[in-house]
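okkk here we go again. third time trying to get the NAP bound version out, last two times i messed up the smiles copy paste (missing a bracket lol). double checked this time i swear
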Amino acid sequence: MGTDLVMILRQHQLIPLTHKEIEVCDHQRTRRILEEYKPEVVINTSAYHRVDLCEDHLEETFKVNTYAVRNLAQICQDLGSVLVHLSTDYVFGGEKKSPYREEDLPHPLNVYGVSKLAGEYFIRQICQTYFIIRTSGLYGVAGASGKGGNFVELMIRLAQEGKPIKVVSDQILTPTYTKELAKKMTQLVETGEYGLYHVTNNGQCSWYEFARVIFELVGLHPDLSATTSEEFSAKAKRPLYSVLENANLRKLDLDDLSSWREALEQYLREKGHLK
Ligand SMILES: NC(=O)c1ccc[n+]([C@@H]2O[C@H](COP(=O)([O-])OP(=O)(O)OC[C@H]3O[C@@H](n4cnc5c(N)ncnc54)[C@H](OP(=O)(O)O)[C@@H]3O)[C@@H](O)[C@H]2O)c1
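finally!!
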């Protein structure tokens, strides 16, 4: 996400800070750095988001996703900076069978979701000028550094290795291309209409269907089969339905994001997977 934001925002006066340059869990140093630059806008893309690992690493998870966010919120409030923060569809529990709107009651099923929701609440408690952007199923050209790549590249690699591939078909979401999200975040911040927003590509699919379309577009024919969350038995529970409706974005007439399929095609083209 950070890589695409840096690309999209290159015309602005930008101070991109990687984990090497800023440790958000070091509250005092983070304050010193931000006090030095006095940025108009702070975009926080840091997170501890290895969802299964979060279950056993509560301290680390809350340090990054909750306490560091509280500190950033306090610093931004003190400096008069706008805080832009990314959150997740995993704040929801999946009981609903139609897309979640911003005002729907969260009900996280795993530690990651609880920690991200608590981060959101601290921002709302402390900041006057913030954008909280909930999104889902991110993939981008750089690949998530915390997860060692992205789902699309993982699927393509497994198919090229000729391995049988099982993907869950009972978790429904909207995969979202980080480049498009970065563009939309920029437009949104420019409106000055602070608040909580859902921002994903449009439409919905299961992870299985997402994988099937990746192979269809790239022209690969692996041994792909559908499985269930129960059979897959990941450490962390995940919502079976976490589609987000870009409802608040629509009120600003900004919900013109492509369908997940179009966005995937665009990504595959840019990554050189399509002829
Ligand atoms: N990936 C998804 O599917 C998804 C879905 C919904 C929401 N989100 C949210 O979107 C945001 C961006 O995620 P992403 O997929 O772009 O993840 P990413 O590629 O792993 O980026 C996260 C970045 O944060 C850095 N970081 C981690 N801990 C840090 C710390 N303590 N101090 C400073 N930097 C730290 C990481 O550096 P190192 O790798 O060097 O630690 C990495 O550069 C996160 O808030 C995430 O919760 C992601």
